[in-house]
Amino acid sequence: MQRRAVLKLAIGTAANIGAAASEAQATGGERIRIGLTAVILADQVAFLSRWGQYLSAQTNRPVSFIARESYQSILDLMFGGQLEAAWICGYPYVLHRSRLQLLPMPIFQGKPLYQSYLIRPRGATDGITGWADLKGKVLAYSDPLSNSGWLVPQAQLRAAGVAPRDLRRGFFTHGHRNVAEAVAARLAQAGCIDGYVWETMRRQKMAAVDQTEVIWKSPLYAFPPLVTRDGVSEDIVASLRTALAGMTQDKEGRGLLDALNLDGFRHEPPKLFESIALLAAAQDRAG
């Protein structure tokens, strides 16, 4: 509980600092509030401040980041008119795509795609090598609206003949980094994590990655997208699209992308999310 309280404080501080810094830098125009769940960077306060300042300069509007623990909290703010944009996951995007517009997609390792990983504690001796081995085990998920941390695992468990009641326990950590930390601490015997997050944590030499190992990787799925909601002015949407797509064009933008472990942002068609939509439909049928 103490760790969660500290995490909430850090997220709130990061969001507030990003807002104050970016609004001070902006020269005018309607504000842009961008929602996201906890970022994976070790220096998230400093990073959100830098990114907010950069986007403010590029859009000529005050840009602030508002972080919350869960995708549902971000969606509630978005559809309540308290956010103009958000970085969400492919699962909530396909659930609400009639009300959302895609912004340029993040590009990771040259593609707008990523994978779900199944991880376990490094050197574990409890025999978990795949999904069928999870019967009677403790499994950590990230978020009930996560593709890689919930939707993909549910499909894999069904395919392996493992029902939810067959697990000893399953629990949500509300964050992919938290999945890695729960598995590293052996609070869970396995965990479902966004492969981009795990790889970025490894690149940043975070301890939880050194203490875990990947035992399964999914097919490729559409990367978690940035979106805007219906009702946001076209000027704001256009300015965000231009700012994100242009980050590779200057030194500061490339530095921010490097910190995010991304190659850039690129316009991609909504059909990229069809494989996630099929998983969501299968999950609905399974109940």
Q: What name is given to the CATH topology of the largest domain? A: D-Maltodextrin-Binding Protein, domain 2
Q: What's the CATH first level of the largest domain?
A: Alpha Beta
β-strand number: 14
List the total number of helices. Answer: 11
Approximately how much beta-strand content do the residues carry? 15-25%
Estimate the mean pLDDT confidence.
90
Which ranges are low-confidence, i.e. pLDDT below 50, for 5 or more consecutive residues?
Answer: 1-27
- Largest sheet geometry: 5 strands, mixed
The portion of residues assigned to helices is 40-55%
CA(first)-CA(last) distance: 31 Å
Question: What is the 3D shape?
Answer: globular
How are the strands of the biggest sheet laid out side by side? 2-1-3-13-4
Order of helices and strands: HEHEHEHEEEEEHEHEHHEEEHHEH
Structural class: alpha/beta
Question: Which properties best describe this structure?
Answer:
single chain, 287 residues, alpha/beta, D-Maltodextrin-Binding Protein, domain 2, 2 domains, five-stranded mixed beta sheet, 44% helix, 20% strand, globular, disordered N terminus
Tell me briefly what this model is:
This protein has 11 helices and 14 strands. It has 287 residues and is α/β, with parallel strands linked by helices.
Detailed description of the structure:
By secondary structure, the protein is α/β, with parallel strands linked by helices. The protein has two domains: 2-109 and 224-275, D-Maltodextrin-Binding Protein, domain 2 (3-Layer(aba) Sandwich), CATH 3.40.190; 116-218, D-Maltodextrin-Binding Protein, domain 2. It contains eleven helices and 14 strands. The protein has helices at residues 2-25, 44-59, 71-79, 90-95, 147-159, 176-184, 195-203, 207-210, 234-245, 251-260, 274-286; strands at 32-37, 63-68, 85-87, 100-102, 105-107, 113-114, 116-121, 138-141, 169-172, 190-194, 212-217, 221-222, 226-229, 264-266. The protein has a five-stranded mixed sheet with strand order 2-1-3-13-4, with helices on both faces. Strands 9-8-10-7-11 form a five-stranded mixed sheet. Strand 8, helix 5 and strand 9 form a beta-alpha-beta unit. The longest helix is centred in the N-terminal third of the chain and has 24 residues, at 2-25.
